[in-house]
Amino acid sequence: MYTPKKYQETDWQLISGFVRENSFGMLVSVLDGRPAGTHLPLELQEKMPGEWVLEGHLSAANPQRHTFASGQPFLAVFTAAHSYISSSWYEKEKIPTWNYMAVHIYGQLRIQTESELRASLERLMDTYEAASRCPVHISDVDPIELQKNIKGIVGFELKVEEVQSTFKLSQNRHDADYFSVVTHLKAKGDEHSRRIAEEMENRRPQ
């Protein structure tokens, strides 16, 4: 991912938090000479101090599974809020742009054993069921139905080997333009604009 230095994010605490908050990502590999991608939840886990992996699974019928034993590097893409930035918000008329946040993670992939997959599914359910009024645990699922579903998916672990992060948030603008962008984003009122404005305020308090 092309990332000018002024837009690079290097704080792993911020990056890992971003990945966890926006964990429905895209897994990309090359299948028969063409890029292949699947949208799926990718959960960041620290296997041991300083060793991070992404856990996920996809349908056994998904052709991308045939790339899992290829030895090729895989790419996981995570994105969040983004917003158009009008040049009319600047003191002097300039070119409009787009503010956004994105993280790319590269690494080798390993297929999980059935027991690893089951443990991964349990963690996934516990994470997302926590907000439910009546949380469902994996032990609540009928064992036969659970086993049938496990047989129909392929679990994997992607080792985090390289991280590229772009948090493009008007860092190149002076204060007057910067806070004008924040004000106009807030006025737009949509969720994406609000989130970008909030992130900009956190990074450069007024």
TrEMBL record:
Classification via InterPro entries: Split_barrel_FMN-bd, TR_PAI2-type
Matches recorded under Gene3D superfamilies: Electron Transport, Fmn-binding Protein, Chain A (2.30.110.10)
Protein name: FMN-binding negative transcriptional regulator
